[in-house]
Amino acid sequence: MRRLKRKFFIKNSVFVAKKLLGKIIIRRYKGEELSGKIVEVESYRGKDDAGSHAYNKKTKRNFLMFGKPGISYIYFCYGNYYLLNIVTEKKGNPGAVLIRAIEPLKGIKTMMKLRGLKNIKKLTNGPGRLTQALFIDKSLNGEDVTKSNKLFFIDNKERFKIKVTTRIGIKKGLEKKWRFYIAGNTFVSKN
Fold this sequence. Notes:
Order of helices and strands: HHEEEEEHHEEE
Shape: globular
Structural class: alpha+beta
Number of helices: 4
CATH superfamily: Methylpurine-DNA glycosylase (MPG)
C-alpha cells in the first residue's frame, strides 16, 4: 500500500472527503503503529460554507485551512477533545476534511488503554474518540501528512456504498450534505 501524496489533497474538499473513505490512517505512537480504516468524514470549505471555520476570514485559529493541502488542522472542541482535519484545496483557497470515525485495525490494545475502555465499538466512532485512541493532540497541528512519520494516510482499494447526509454538530451550513460514511459500517458515529 502506498502513502497518499499531496496531489491527492489538492482537489475540492467534497471530492477529497469521499475519496478518503476506506483509506488507512496511521499514527506512530511510542514506537507502535496505531491504525484504522476511515469510515466517516465531513467536508468544510470557505466563503461558500457557513458551517466552516474559514467562512468569514483567515484568523489565528483557522490559518492552516488556507495553506498547503495535506497538512493537519487540529483544534480543541468544546473544551473536551481534539478534532483532526486534513487541509484540502489549492493553497489560498480554504478547505479541510474532518475525520469523524475509523474502524480500528492495528494497536487496538493500546487504543483501548488510551481511551480507558474495552468496548471496541465505542473506541473510535466519533471525531473526539478517534483522536484520543490515536493520541492525536495539538502537538500534531500543522503536521505534513504527506511526509510525516508520526501521522499519515495510505491507499486502500476497497468497494463500498457511500451514504450522504448533513453534517453533525454545527448550527450553520446545515443545507450542505457534506457528511459521508461507509454504509453498514458499525464504527460510524451516527447512522
